[in-house]
Design goal:
By secondary structure, the protein is an alpha/beta fold. The chain has 5 helices and 8 strands. The chain has 2 domains: 72 residues, Translation initiation factor 3 (IF-3), N-terminal domain (Ubiquitin-like (UB roll), Roll), CATH 3.10.20; 83 residues, Translation Initiation Factor IF3, CATH 3.30.110. The strands form 2 sheets. Strands 2-1-4-3 form a 4-stranded mixed β-sheet. Strand 7 and strand 8 form a beta hairpin. The longest helix has 18 residues.
C-alpha cells in the first residue's frame, strides 16, 4: 500500500507528458532534450527516465534505475520517521480539596512522567458548586508547578476552561553535562645554547 503511493508519485518513461525535459544526471550535462531523445538516452543505458520535478519549466528528469530510486526514497522516509520525536501528554487530575497524601502520590507520578520526557497536563476538576473554590484550585496548581520546578518548566499558567483549571508543564532539557577536562599544557622544548 505504502509502496503504491510512492510509485504513483513519479512518472516514468512513457508516462511523462511533456514535449521537452531537462535531464539531470551524474554523467550527463544538465540540458533540455526533446522527450523522444531523452527516452532513447535512458533506453541506451538500460535505465528509466524518471520525472523528479513535474512543475518546473521544462520538467526535470533523471536517468536512473527506478526500483533503486524507490528503495532509496523509502529508506530516506524511514530515517526521517525514526528521527522524529514523539511527545506524549500525561494528564493528572486533582479535586479542589485534594489531600496531601494524594497530592504527593500524584507529584511522584508527575516527576516520573517528566523524567521520561513526557509533557504533563495537570488540572483541577470542579464538580457542581465546588467551582466556588477557584482560588483554591489555582493555589494547588501553582504549588504543583513550584514543587516540580527542578523537573519542568511551565508552558501555560493555570487557566479556567469550563469546569477545569488547567496548567501545562514540559520537561526541562537535560543539559549535556560535559565536564570540561583541562587540556594538558604543551611542553616547551628547551634549547641548550
Amino acid at each position: 500500500m505504502k509502496n503504491d503511493s510512492l510509485k504513483s508519485q513519479y512518472r516514468i518513461n512513457e508516462q511523462i507528458r511533456a514535449k521537452e525535459v531537462r535531464i539531470v544526471s551524474d554523467d550527463i550535462e544538465p540540458q533540455v532534450y526533446p522527450i523522444a531523445q531523452a527516452l532513447k538516452m535512458a533506453e541506451e543505458r538500460e535505465l528509466d527516465l524518471v520525472e523528479i520535478s513535474p512543475n518546473a519549466q521544462p520538467p526535470v528528469c533523471r536517468i536512473i534505475d527506478y526500483s533503486k530510486f524507490l528503495y532509496q526514497q523509502k529508506k530516506r522516509q524511514k530515517e526521517q520517521k525514526a528521527k522524529q520525536v514523539k511527545v506524549n501528554v500525561k494528564e493528572i487530575r486533582f479535586g479542589p480539596q485534594t489531600d496531601d497524601h494524594d497530592y504527593n502520590f500524584k507529584l511522584k507520578h508527575a516527576k516520573g512522567f517528566l523524567e521520561d520526557g513526557d509533557k504533563v497536563k495537570a488540572y483541577v476538576f470542579f464538580k457542581g458548586r465546588s467551582i466556588l473554590f477557584k482560588e483554591q484550585g489555582e493555589v494547588l496548581l501553582l504549588r504543583f508547578a513550584n514543587d516540580l520546578e527542578d523537573y519542568a518548566k511551565v508552558d501555560q499558567m493555570p487557566a479556567l476552561e469550563g469546569k477545569r483549571m488547567i496548567i501545562f508543564l514540559s520537561p526541562k532539557k537535560k543539559d549535556a553535562q560535559k565536564k570540561s577536562t583541562p587540556k594538558p599544557a604543551k611542553e616547551e622544548t628547551k634549547t641548550d645554547e
